[in-house]
Amino acid sequence: MLRARNKYLFMVVSFLLWFPQFLYVPIFSPYMESLGGKYTFIGIVLSSYGLMQLICRLPIGIFSDLRRVRKPFIIFGMFVSMLSCLIFLFTDNLGWILAARALAGLSAATWVAFTVLYPSYFTEKEVHLAMGSISFIVVLAQFIGMSFSGYIVSEWGWKAPFLIGGLFSIIGVILSFFIFEPKEGIEREPIKLKDLAIVVKESTLLKVALLSIIAHSIIFSTMFGFTSNYALKIGFKESELTWLVFSFMIPHAIATLFMGRVLVPHLGEWNALKIAFFLASLFTIVFPFVHTKGFFLVFQGFSGFSLGLIFPLLLGMSIEKIAPEKRATAMGTYQALYAIGIFAGPFFAGIFNSMMGIAAGFYFVGILGLVATFLIIIWSRGHGESAAICVEQSVEKSKAGV
To answer: Which residues form the signal peptide (predicted)?
Structure first.
């Protein structure tokens, strides 16, 4: 009974880390634009989230390994998340909004401690179950938070998501003090520089990391970036932004099952990746040509589905060529590298949007996707893979991170 309580409490705390952060994502760019923020500045604010993860994720993982404790880092992450929401709530100053979003990125970087502590509640054979459960909690928090943000703003104003997020964050901070961690700590070999040097020389990991940087650039410049701004410009109301979330996130989730059961077994990893990137690029580039709500939602669905094929596939491919004893190092490296995309995509999209209009950002990341497609065509020639690739290699491994 106590063991079950520990698991459920941890899942609740995990939900309370992500829910407040995604509650305001669909309305965040329009909110900053309503305060007078230019697209360049909006891009900088959006990119700060990825920059903090890029800088902090590996150091937090290494330091928590050396100290053999995770709970203090989890409490710290919950506190920083709360602080971020409260700053958003109590100020309209664009400089403080930048600081608050950077703090949200720092909070997200502590997720590495969550993903180490939670599996300790399970037996060795149940680790995949643990990672699957906690990954589901993240997706659930994202989906619920983003689904209601537009309606909340239309009913109670721009500040309402930050107020609700702040209240949930306060509850999360309090509950985080009660999560269980073994007194002896969790034994995990810290990342060693020599292992890091070996891992970064693995060509497949570097190729996959580069593709992931591009994929994250696309999604954080569009769905988690400027898509809402464009939708409002073509006639959507704030309350209707909920439909943008539904039309993107539902196909995005379905795509994971489709990728594992249909696309990869029949086409192989690299061919599946090539098709997914090409489709994601195509739908991103045509967005600025869509001016009706119905077609916009249809293209949102296709975009969500295409990107939903890419992320779990890349996650599995990032460690499949790595020796088991070095996979934790490889995963940490991969997650730190793809944060470059979370930073760079919105940063440059914001600049292009300011210079040439909001369509420019969509063209920019769409072209990046075409570059990724071209790279995959070249790289796949060196991988003699058959069509009958085991589904587990991509699907199960995709559960190992967020």
So the answer is: none
Residue type, 223: M
The CATH number covering residue 147 comes to 1.20.1250.20
C-beta atoms surrounding 381 within 10 Å: 9
Contact 310, 368 (CB under 8 A): no
* 186, part of any domain: no
- CA 279, chain centre distance (Å): 20
Domain boundary among 148, 181, 214: 181
pLDDT digit string (tens) for 247-278?
998 998 888 777 666 677 777 888 889 999 99
- Classified as helix, coil or strand, 183 is coil
- Considering the domain architecture, whether residues 164 and 196 belong to the same structural domain is answered as no
pLDDT digits (tens, 9 = 90+) for 308-341: 889 888 887 887 777 766 666 677 788 888 999 9
Are 322 and 334 in contact by the 8 Å Cβ rule? The answer is no
The half-sphere exposure of 272 on its side-chain side, counting CA atoms within 13 A, is 31
Tokens 């928090």, residue located: 141
User: Which residue segment(s) compose the domain that 65 sits in?
Assistant: 1-181
**CB of 274 closer than 8 Å to CB of 215:** no
* pTM, to two decimals: 0.85
Q: Per the structure, how many domains does the chain have?
A: 2
- Helix axis angle, 127-156 to 25-34, nearest 10°: 40
Please give the span between the terminal C-alpha atoms of the chain, in angstroms, as a whole number. Answer: 28
Q: Do 177 and 195 fall within a single domain?
A: no
Cα dihedral value 53, 58, 63, 66, nearest 10: 150
